[in-house]
Amino acid sequence: MLKGKCAVITGSTRGIGKSIAIKYASLGCNIVINYKSENDEVNARELSDEICKLGVDTLIVKANVGDFEEAKNLVEKAKEKFGKVDILVNNAGITKDNLIIRMKEEDFDSVIKTNLKGAFNCLKAVTPIMLKQKYGKIVNMASVVGVVGNPGQVNYCASKAGLIGMTKSLAKEIGSRNITVNAIAPGFIDTDMTKILSDDQKKKILSQIPLNKFGNVEDIANVALFLGSENSNYITGQVIHVDGGMAM
Ligand code: NAP
Asked: Which end of the chain is flanked by fewer CB atoms within 10 Å, N or C?
């Protein structure tokens, strides 16, 4: 389904990004693996080995997507190695939760810088390539809380709501060049990011999910595959909710 394509997936050493990388690779896609922290170097190498066994090629690029030059370098390295970038998944994201009265300015800034500016930085670098190719699939990882809000997450919700606005604007800007831009709004997915929630918090969240369970990374990877493939060719500017029915 993705045979011979090249996908850059930001934040792909763990959680949702890793699952998307394996899903794409299993269908023939070459993968550019990205991460930020030194500690993730081993994860990146292990993932690369796992993916190469599927018969595709990988490139590992350590880059902080929040840094304009590093994001540019990530995309340039991908183009250098594979000659093109067919798919960009803006997945890298962080949380720094707190009630606004306790939230530090730097916690607001760092979340916006990674989740929103990071996506912009990668889009800035990849758009000229995709425009030239007259082909591209962009998938932005938003969140259900970017649509409905969540106490204790003004920074995170603002970043994800911003990402949704960015998705729609860019979809309108570059749609005529055969480039689709969509967002996924996951609900609560079992990853390192949600492991930090207390049992009480989890119980409260569960009571708001009609399907009465948390999602898993595969649930998100399946939709990312759809949006990264030819099966979604006539879909752009959309936010696909994968949240067990939380927002409807
Ligand atoms: P995760 O398990 O915490 O993994 C996050 C990944 O992003 C890691 O590979 C991390 O690498 C990378 N990353 C973080 N900051 C980065 C930066 N500045 N530059 C490059 N890479 C960076 O998170 P996840 O739960 O899989 O979440 C993935 C995406 O889905 C995020 O955008 C998140 O907001 C969104 N989402 C998650 C949920 C959920 O319930 N899990 C719900 C809605 C939306 P390093 O560790 O090396 O920094």
From this structure: C
